[in-house]
Write a structure and sequence with these properties.
By secondary structure, this protein is α/β, with parallel strands linked by helices. The protein is built from twelve helices and 16 strands. Helix content is 33%, strand content 20%. α2 crosses α7. The termini are far apart.
Amino acid sequence: MIQKRHYFVLTLLMLLIFVLFQVTVTTSYFGDSQTKNPYDYARDIPAPEGGDGLPSEQDEAPFVILTGVNRQMPKRTEGVKRSLACMKQHYAVAGTLADLSEEQLETAQTLVITASRFDDVGTVDELKRAMQGGRSVIFATLPARDELDDTELQVILGVRGIREYYEQEGLRVFPGFLLGGWGQYEDYTFDALYTKVRSSCKSYIVGEVEDAAEQGLENEDLPDILWRNYYEESPVFVVNAPFFETSAGPGMLAGMLAEMQRTFVYPVINARCLVVENLPYLSNENRDTLMQLYSRDAERFLQDIVFPGLVSLGKKTDNLLSCFATSSFDSSAVSQEEFNLELVAFYKQELAKVKGELALSGFDRVQKSGAAKLLADLELYSGRLGGYLFSAFAPDGLDRASYAPLLTEGGALDGVRALVGP
């Protein structure tokens, strides 16, 4: 028979075990959070060696990494190596431009400069010779401040003006570069040179400035972080951020390579995207059935139940939400006069709040009109979204012959960089 005092002892023992468990978990959590930079976890992942028989480094390759005469900044160089290896790209490594053999230079399509000082890699004249024939160049970091006074180097980089170093407050990524589309990243901060580029350059990422809204600063007034310039026939990409020293490197490099090539295929690993096709929709179809089941029409069903649930699911699973919009499910059952066009801008704004993406769907239950419904949808959306560029498209049953011509240069889907298959 258990006495009452034994109950008291057992209760104290269980309470003690519970407290010890909580202390252990809390200590482990805070210990990891203080010692681990959330952007540095990729450094612990060894670069793949010879996946599928593909060597990560060789003497002659389409990519040449130039590390400088002193082989400086090993972390940045290793980040570039890892990024290329993850995308199954051959690369060679050299110290300076003068170290490159004729065979290496002939094979190379892209030079990636990882040195912090350009003069450790070579001279401007040597770089010009290496770029002949349209060879592309990636500056994995902006050259040193004193080097940017060189007018010829400014022309190659596309730099218009330089100020002092500042601590930027986050990033703005413009559509058409990364798969996630437009986004703001307030938690990515670092020191960078306040750089402005020439009007001939294309900026993909700009830095946030404290009190930018109060100062009335627009996108074109913000400091440039990643951009592309053209020197004669050669594309020149410049990175004014420590992307290749963090886990962001592979994504940034993939975006640059996709811009260099009309068609660029690469493996997406741990993309962490929640893809939802045919949402949002503009039509109010199946009204009676939905009213009977959920006491809401299709519009309210999406706004009150479906969309909040998807946002919650994306947050819980740490996935970015990509919604592929369609005007209607059955183009023969509804007319454009019945569409609620205000929903397009509304869901674009709501997706932006959660760093999601509004994409495009080609779904049509009838599938008799070819690309006619798709083109009509694009016209509807452009009236409400202005110059918004759809960077992802899901054919969703649409015949390839109908949409393939739209993906070509100058086509209605020219801005698409991601094609989602079944």
